[in-house]
Amino acid sequence: MEVVQHYNQSRFMGFVPHIRKDTGEWYIVEVCLTGKTDHNAAYIALKLKEYFDGRDGIIFICNSKNVLVLAHMGRNVEGESISNGIHEKLPQHSCTAQTSDVTPDGLVKIQLRLEALEQDNESQPQVSRLLSARQKRADRIVMVVDDDAFMRSLASKTFRAKGRVIGFKNANKVLEAYLEYLPDIVFLDIHLPDGSGMDLLVEILSFDASAHVVILSADSVKDNIVSARERGAKDFIAKPFTLEKLESCYSKCPTVTSHGTMKAGS
Fold first, then answer.
1. pLDDT tens across 14-53, in order?
2. What does DSSP assign to residue 105?
3. Are the CB atoms for 228 and 236 separated by under 8 Å?
4. Rounded to an integer, what distance in angstroms lies between the CA atom of residue 106 and that of residue 53?
5. 102 C-beta neighbours (distance < 10 Å), count
6. Considering the entire predicted model, what is its pTM?
7. H/E element holding 177?
8. Helical H segments across 90-161, by residue range
9. What backbone phi and psi angles, to 5 degrees, belong to 165?
10. Distance between CA 61 and CA 31 in Å, rounded?
């Protein structure tokens, strides 16, 4: 199931013919973030994608508080069970989820609802909201994705006094953790045991265009450096790297330089 960062009329209209074939098999799910959570709409959308895994449909991130899903569930699934399943999947008390049938004449109402949510977007772009969320945090957060335990340890020692350090040895769950914690900077290895760091870079940027990602690699050939830059990486560090190079990249991160005094983290 695809996640769309904002309401897009053409993408919505592309689903209308599929829905009209049998509206009784489709559901609309409105998810609203509560004031009791620090999670962002992009993270909630990713968790919804996991819940609806294998289903046809689309997820719209309408604004910072509302996510709307069009899902093909078949005839043997009731709306109440969908709502209950979503509440079990998402962090406790983070959201409310309301499920309703899609009627033949209800598609226009759905479109109007999406347009209304988009207009109620707090007149602040997604990028600005994510940057603002980082800047308001007390601690800086650094994410390190590298299958080399020594490299992760070195980075952890370098940044432990500056904030919180989150480490991963492979690509699995990195995107989910990224959207949950919104790190200020990510140090990302190209070659991971279960995937490509380059692909993960593109995936992160598709959710957060403001992401500050630095690529790490022992393959510092020109093609890798150019490719990393073209895909949106802010910098490239060749292995083995020095502490000075790590700190230099860290100091160039916008939410670090604009934050001022930093507290020590875990």
1. 878 888 888 888 999 999 998 777 788 889 999 999 999 9
2. T
3. yes
4. 25
5. 20
6. 0.75
7. helix 174-181
8. 107-119, 126-136, 149-159
9. -115, 125
10. 10
